Each structure stands twice: as C-alpha cells, then as structure tokens.
Amino acid sequence: MNQTRTFLLFALLAVAYFLFLAWEKDYAPLPPSMPIASSSSAGTQADGSVPVAANDGVNASAAIPGATPSSTAPSATATTAKLVNINTDVLHLTIDTRGGSVVKTQLLAYPSLPPTHAMPHPAPTVLLDNSEDDYFVAQNGLVSSSDKAPADQPNHQAIFTAAQTDYTLAPGQNELKVDLTWQDAAGLKVTKTYTFKRGSYQIGLTQRIDNGGTQPWQGYAYQQLLRAAPPKPSSWIKGYTDPQTRFAQGAGWYTGEKFEKLPFKNFSEPKDQLDAQIKGGWAAMLKLYFFAAWIPPADQTDRYVTSTINPDSGQPHYLIRTMGPGLSVAPGQSVSSQSQLYLGPNIQGSLDAIAPGLDLTIDYGMFKAIAVPMHWVLSQLHAIAKNWGVAIILLVLLIKGATWKLTAMQYKSSAKMRKLQPRIAQLKERYGDDKLKMQQATMELYKKEKVNPMGGCLPVLITMPVFLGLFYVLEYSIELRHAPFLWIPDLSSPDPFYILPIIYALVMLGTQWLNPAAAGMDPAQARMMKVMPLLFTLLFAFYPSGLCLYYAINGLVGLGQQWWVTHHVDREEGIKAA
Predict the structure, then answer these.
(1) Which of 24, 379, 429, 442 has the fewest CB atoms within 10 Å of its CB?
(2) In this structure, are strands 80-87 and 49-51 parallel, antiparallel, or unpaired?
(3) What is the C-alpha separation between 420 and 414, in angstroms, rounded?
(4) Which of 178, 192, 174, 3 is nearest to 90 (CA)?
C-alpha cells in the first residue's frame, strides 16, 4: 500500500470518527427547556426566604422506599425556607433550609470565562444551580420505614433552621461547621452538620438523630443528585464546536470494582436503569471538567438507584440516589449517619485519594491504557515548561522521538513505492484487464526490489490508538481550560484566528507534494486527496486549539522527517544508478 493510500485511509478514519462523535451528541434526544415547578426555582422573597410548594417535582413516596404519600408534605407550621450562604477559600455555596439541600455552588478558582483585559476577573464557574435553565442540586434526608410515620418527616422537603444565614471560613481557620436542625412535636430531633475544610472541595455531612420521644424511630438516610439535562444546542455547529456538548453528560457510579455511566438519553431505558446494592462505591453527576458526587462510607453497603422524575413533562429531572442501611433509634438514644459530598474539578491523579475509582469520572474508554500515561507525561512536561502549549509541543517531540524508526520505515517504504509507480504503470499497460497476471507481476517486482507494500500501513495502524488516546487527553483535560499560549487565550477553545488549522492544511499540502498522485490512481482517490486539506482545515477550525496545536506540530515534524527520508532514498537510488 503506497503512502498516498495510507494517508487517505488514515484521514478518512479520523474524519469519520470525529463526525460520528459530533452526530451522536448533536442528534441525541434531549428534552426542551421549560420552567421547573419547584420551590427551589421559584425565586426568593424580599427577606431572602424561599416559598415552599407542596411538591418540588420529586415524588418522594415513589422514589424513596419506605416513604408514604403523607411523608412528602412539608410541615404545616413552617411555610418558608431560607437560603444559607457559605464561603470558603475555594467554594461559595448556597444551602436551602428546605431539606438542607445544596442548591448552588460556585468554584472560586475556576472562572467561567478566560480572563481578558476588559474582564480581568470573570465570574466563577457555577456547578450546582437551582435556576430553571440548568437545574442541578444535591439533596439528602431521612425517611421513616414505618407505614404509620407522621406527615412531618426530616426528608429533603422538611424545613430546617440555621443559626445564621452567612458563614465564612476566616483567615487562619482550617475548618468550618454549619448546623441545620429540625424537630417534630413528638421530640424527634435531626441535626445536619456540613463540614468544610480549607482548600478542599470535599464536604462532610453528618445527619444526627436524637430521639427525645417515647417511640423508637426506624428509617433510612439517603443522598441524591437531581439534575435536568442541559438544553439541546441551538445549532449543529454549536453542538459540534462546544466540548460541553460532546462530553457524555449524565450519571456515573462506582461499584467498588468498575465505573459505569448512564447518559441522560438512556435514563428511561429499563435495561439501563440502576438498582443495586453496592459497597465501597459512590454516585455522581458528570459534566465536562467538573462533577458532583455523594460518597458513602467505604465499609457501608448502600442501595443505588437511578430514575427519571416526571418523564412525560417537557423538562424531566434525572436522579441518582444512594440509600444507607436501616437505622434504629430507641427513645433517649442517638444515631448518626455519615457521607461525603464532592463538588469540584476533575483533576486527574488526585481524586483516588478521596475515594477509590473517583479518577474514573473522566472515562477514556478503550483508550484508557494509553490516555492515562499520556496525561501523566503531559503533566510532567508542564511542570518543566510551565506552559501547557509548550508542554504539548514537547510531548509531540517526545512521541516522535520514540516512534522515529517506525515512521522512518513507513516513509522509506512510501518513497520506494513511489519510485516503482512508473514500472507498475507499464505492467498495467502490458497485462491490461488480466488482474491475476498483473498481481503476480507486481508481487515479483516488489520481491525483486525488496519493497514491502504493507510497510506504509503497519506504522499507521500502530500509531492510531496513540492518536485517539491523545484526542481524549487533550479534549477532556481541565488543565487546558483557559490555558493561554502565544496568541491563543484558551487551549480548550478553537483557535480565534484559525492559524493552527491553516498550518495543518499547509502541512497536508506539503505531504501531497512529497507524494504526488501515483500513476494509475483511481480518479476518485485523487480528487479526495485534493479536498483533504480543506476538509481538515474546516474540521480543526472547530476543535480545541490544544488538539490543533498537537496535530499541527506533529504534522510539521512528520513532514520534515518525510522530506529527509525521501531525500535520503533518492540519493541512494542515484548512487545505485551511477
């Protein structure tokens, strides 16, 4: 197989793969956006309180085992909830005292836009949000297992109270605790304690039950993430160019042995729904670069479920829940339930220290064995270069150096094949339509000249997994988000001046110049080769500039190597001819 056909095969495979990713995300059936019938999104009153509705869109009796219809009703004595603001050095959170749910989270170290001269300090990235457009909250609570439980229950709809509405982690303070309390007329008291630590996106949650009544209390502690699917892109171009839409958002969980995902579009499929007992796992909702996860104690077995709330509505909510083992609290006794909530960035190599398998929230799929080491190498190069763009260039040179002999063999085979094209054309004229004799004569020519026709294909097949593994690394790495390089303000966004796509197109033209259309090439192939530079220019114009930088530099180095090998082969042939 000559170099031209090898290049064409490689290009077509790459284009087909990229177009498949774009098509899969662009045409996934996502529901349209519409207002959420929820107290959390109903807006705040003048005093900062939130009105409580009879139902927040979640049927607790259907979604939570052991709950009764009456347990979903809010307390008759408390009609409003308040918003509690918590500020740490890395987080700004809002907790709704209705259920003690986290309804908004801002990640202070991660701006929503790259800084500019006009806007040097953009607003922080919002992860959790109770707005209508991107509803995403973290809820928790307790539910009684008794069919005779009173209507007032400490679930995620109950009204809790807080000592104040603003908490701040003071300078020099390493830990901040925020208590929310609830108590019924029978003497049952629940205290939720959120614990925040300096520099950490991990939040501790303790639900303490004090039974001051005369009857034992039995029930379950649960934690859940509730989210609406992001709106469908307004156009196919938006869906193709925005990495957020290409990333498979949805629920994810760890079984203690492996990581599994459930995209929003599959939530309603019965065969894909989760309902299992899991020990040492966690449950998450995934976004590109960031995620939220409830992490039960590692030695505890929880029931994990997923469900779609109000699936027939215009804006269904998607839920993943963990429910702990049964709790029993005798009169005069106390019992506590523990859990951890992670709200933050997906930083590879650091999350497994929080919980086993948490690094898997970025799923490289079948290319994990290649992508994970590549990410580590890229991080080490950044530690040396102090710039992600320079680190990408160094990674190109490192990979090129490691595969130099392999690609040199490919270019050498291609150069020799090109030299034989006139003689192959003569064989075609001699044997005409006799394909069998033509094939035999061609193989004899290859054997005589010691040319391996597959020498140009094998290196491509070997390097293809590296190509795709790096695609995921450069696409999903949060380190490239808003990372500047020369004229590029953000390596995770397209090149604003299209310089890198143009460089790549010029590299392809140079490659074609070194490999002119072979004699007898199919006219369709020849036309395709001429169109390829334009096609790849358009393709990379919409992809993150970090990817374009890698492939542009990779192409330049490859072009230089191919010219050197071709020149060396020509010189050898000239010496032999002399």
Answers:
(1) 429
(2) antiparallel
(3) 10
(4) 174
> In angstroms, rounded to a whole number, what is the distance separating the alpha carbons of residues 104 and 135?
10
Distance of CA 187 to the CA centre of its chain: 46
List the end-to-end C-alpha distance of the chain, in Å, as a whole number: 28
Hunting for tokens 């192939």 — which residue is that? 525
pLDDT higher than threshold 50 for residue 89: yes
Residue 111 · residue 195 · CB < 8 Å: no
- 563 vs 323 pLDDT, higher one: 323
> What are the tens digits of pLDDT across the range 441-453?
777 777 776 666 6
Q: What gap in Å lies between CA 397 and CA 41, rounded to an integer? A: 51
Report the DSSP beta bridge partners of residue 336. 208
**How far apart are alpha carbons 191 and 188 in whole angstroms?**
10
Lowest mean pLDDT among 193-197, 283-287, 326-330, 527-531: 527-531
Which two tokens mark 176? 């901040």
- pLDDT band (50, 70, 90) for residue 11: low
Long-range contacts of 56-63 (CB under 8 A, 24+ apart): 56/157, 57/309, 57/310, 57/317, 58/156, 58/226, 58/309, 58/317, 58/319, 59/309, 60/143, 60/155, 60/156, 60/157, 63/305, 63/307, 63/309, 63/319, 63/321
Q: Are strands 80-87 and 166-168 parallel, antiparallel or unpaired?
A: parallel
Distance CA 135, CA 155 (A): 20
pLDDT in tens, 464-497: 777 788 888 888 889 999 999 999 999 988 888 9
Q: Using CA of residue 136, residue 287, residue 93, residue 144, what is the dihedral sign?
A: positive
Q: Which residues contact 337 (CB under 8 A, 6 or more apart)?
A: 142, 206, 207, 209, 221, 324, 327
Tokens at 267, concatenated: 């939530």
CA angle, 194 as apex, 46 and 184 as ends, to 5°? 70
pTM, rounded to two decimals: 0.79
pLDDT at residue 457, as a whole number: 59
Quick check: 129 and 212 in contact, CB under 8 A? no
Distances (CA, A) of 358 to 43, 283, 354, 459: 34, 10, 7, 35
Please state the length of the chain: 578
User: Hey, is 481 helix, strand or coil?
Assistant: coil
Are the beta carbons of 11 and 532 closer than 8 angstroms?
yes
The pLDDT tens digits of the residues spanning 129-144 come to 998 878 999 999 999 9
CA of 229: how far to CAs of 32, 204, 248, 292, 500, in Å?
Answer: 9, 27, 11, 15, 34
φ, ψ of residue 227 to 5 degrees: the values are: -145, 145
Q: What are the phi and psi torsion angles at 372 (to 5°)? A: -65, -50
Which tokens hold the place of 519? 């004699």
Q: Evaluate whether 317 touches 229 at the Cβ level (below 8 Å).
A: no
% helix / strand / coil in the chain, to the nearest 5? 40, 25, 35
- E strand intervals along 269-405: 275-279, 282-286, 290-295, 301-309, 317-323, 327-329, 334-345
| Closest by CA position to 392, among listed 568, 551, 155, 163 | 551
